[in-house]
Amino acid sequence: MYNYHRTEKYDKRFLSQNFMGPNAMLMLDEITQCVELTKEMRVLDLGCGTGLTSVFLVKEYGVQTFAVDLWITATDNYKRFLQMGVDDLVVPIHADATVELPFADEYFDALISVDSYHYYGNNDDYFEKHLKSLIKKGAPVAIAIPGTKQEMNGIIPDALKPFLDDEGFATLHCIEWWTQILEKHLDDFSIKEMDCTDTAWSDWLATDNPIAKQDIDMMKADNGKYLNLISVTGKRK
Hints:
Number of strands: 7
Mean pLDDT: 97
């Protein structure tokens, strides 16, 4: 069982205003209970969105965090980091994860990615080509992604067709599929459906975000049959 007391102390209004999907901070709280993070580490927070995960990494672990995102500008995230008092330990970076990232080889002591890896890492080549050289051997890796309970091969179930497009659904895969993609890169490999799946989704659906309002009907149609959240943890080989 996981204990989410760390997430519970954050202001719910601040979190809900900055969600971009299922509660990323709650997802991070769960996956970081499966890896070891210490203050002297440099951590790559890849696909950090509005930076909630970076805030959590600094406040809970005191690690130096490099907050990389494509959709949210570095300036927007820097303002949030100032607001939360973590700007001294977070470097906001606007970058595309699918091209060469601007870091030295073996620069990072850990890799974190929450609710973004499925967009760019859902192929056999990504980890080897873009990430492996940046992370030290033996470095902890913790990834949380939306997925499916069984492999759908990009075919949207009839119940979900009104809510999803082919491109987006093609990024979603099951535990067995992700095992084939990532297990070869990680020692102490672990993959499972996240315990916080229902709560993380509920937190998102309760916000005033118009996208969340649309997702309410989608999750009702899904009714727990197809969609889930998946955690992947291990150490870089």
